[in-house]
């Protein structure tokens, strides 16, 4: 049994995130479906890998997709409002956000059938792994072990199909690029395929690209979709709040969907007089930090005004993590959700 040290203090959280030599990502076995083969983590040029994931979804590059996102949001809101029966808001938002991330990373020339398959399979993985997480939280694994096994293999089966679809898309794209055919100006997969290291050799194998795409699709679809759903719920309950940045920040604090991340100690480390041993697991509980009454007064209350002229100390607000593995999709989430909020507030309730 591996010992665990749970981190809920902002200063220690910051120390562990930023000390990349002593603490490395190490997730529970059941969640490794979304880490893929792990070969991306073995590439020496981490900065280039992170840059390839972040390039199209941060900074000025996002402006290339704003018009597309706005048109899709307007279209979806019109469709939702015309439904005679109640809609499943989470499913609709995750589907919308999946279109965004697929457009950015796969381009426009991948068949609609393939993207629909990918969306369905990611939904299957998400549901299976969320159910496993709930079984663990409720301490039901001992009585529901067969259920756990079924869910885990459901996720693995969906993952295998995702990998096969993505591998075919990558191979088709490689062949097209070799023939100098079908090049797209805005398709990040092409940049991944053509990326080279300092010696001019190809930086990423198909396997590495697949792992990267699994990460961005999961974060850009499942995690972002849940957060955006709660943004709409909170704004419906607090219609007097119109400053979108405050609403988004308060939602990310109050409803921290990525409740924890995991690190493993690679050496014995002294923190505040206590020794964390090599090999120990370190769950970082972001939700506990975000709900700490010593940091946020009346933390259960949804109060966007708490962000008036407030800049949290390092480690006190980490919905997107920190350090080298800071989530590259944070700007994409804020823009796509601001667009959704803008049109929702203007025309709907």
TrEMBL record:
Its cofactor is heme. The keyword Metal-binding applies. InterPro entries: Cyt_P450 (IPR001128), Cyt_P450_B (IPR002397), Cyt_P450_sf (IPR036396). Its main location: membrane. Keywords: Heme, Iron, Membrane, Metal-binding, Oxidoreductase, Transmembrane, Transmembrane helix. It holds the Pfam family p450. It is a single-pass membrane protein. It comes from the Eukaryota. It is found in: Membrane. Belongs to the cytochrome P450 family. This is Uncharacterized protein.
């Amino acid at each position: 049994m591996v010992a665990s040290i749970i981190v809920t203090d902002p200063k220690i959280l910051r120390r562990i995130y930023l000390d990349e030599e002593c603490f490395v990502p190490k997730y529970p076995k059941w969640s490794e479906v979304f880490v893929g083969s792990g070969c991306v983590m073995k590439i020496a040029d981490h900065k280039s890998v992170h840059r390839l994931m972040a390039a199209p979804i941060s900074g000025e590059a996002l402006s290339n997709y704003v018009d597309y996102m706005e048109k899709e949001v307007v279209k979806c809101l019109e469709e939702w409002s015309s439904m005679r029966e109640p809609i499943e808001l989470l499913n609709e938002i995750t589907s919308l956000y999946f279109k965004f991330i697929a457009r950015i990373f796969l381009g426009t020339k991948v068949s609609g059938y393939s993207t629909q398959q990918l969306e369905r399979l990611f939904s299957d993985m998400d549901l299976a792994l969320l159910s496993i997480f709930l079984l663990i939280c409720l301490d039901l694994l001992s009585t529901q072990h067969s259920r756990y096994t079924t869910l885990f293999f459901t996720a693995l089966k969906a993952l295998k199909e995702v990998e096969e679809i993505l591998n075919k898309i990558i191979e088709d794209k490689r062949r097209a690029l070799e023939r100098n055919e079908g090049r797209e100006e805005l398709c990040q997969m092409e940049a991944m395929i053509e990326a080279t290291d300092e010696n001019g050799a190809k930086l990423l194998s198909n396997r590495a690209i697949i792992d990267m795409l699994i990460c961005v699709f999961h974060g850009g679809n499942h995690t972002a979709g849940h957060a955006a759903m709660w943004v709409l719920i909170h704004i419906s309950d607090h219609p007097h709040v119109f400053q979108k940045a405050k609403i988004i920040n308060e939602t990310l604090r109050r409803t921290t969907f990525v409740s924890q991340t995991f690190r493993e100690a690679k050496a014995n480390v002294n923190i505040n007089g206590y020794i964390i041993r090599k090999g120990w697991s370190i769950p970082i509980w972001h939700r506990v930090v975000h709900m700490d009454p010593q940091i946020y007064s009346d933390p259960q209350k949804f109060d966007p005004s708490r962000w008036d002229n407030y800049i949290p100390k390092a480690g006190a607000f980490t919905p997107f993590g920190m350090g080298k593995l800071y989530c590259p999709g944070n700007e994409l989430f804020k823009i796509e959700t601001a667009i959704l909020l803008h049109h929702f507030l203007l025309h709907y309730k």
